[in-house]
Design brief:
Blueprint (H helix, E strand, L loop, with lengths): L1 H28 L1
Length: 30
């Protein structure tokens, strides 16, 4: 159970990291 929760949090953090990178790239365009 604990391992599953850690994997879920890690996956969410990974997705959030990609979103931040895309946001920074969009800011560089303007």
């Amino acid at each position: 159970m604990l391992k599953f929760r850690w994997e879920t949090e890690f996956r969410e953090t990974e997705i959030g990291g990609y979103q931040r990178i895309e946001m920074l790239r969009n800011l560089e365009k303007y």
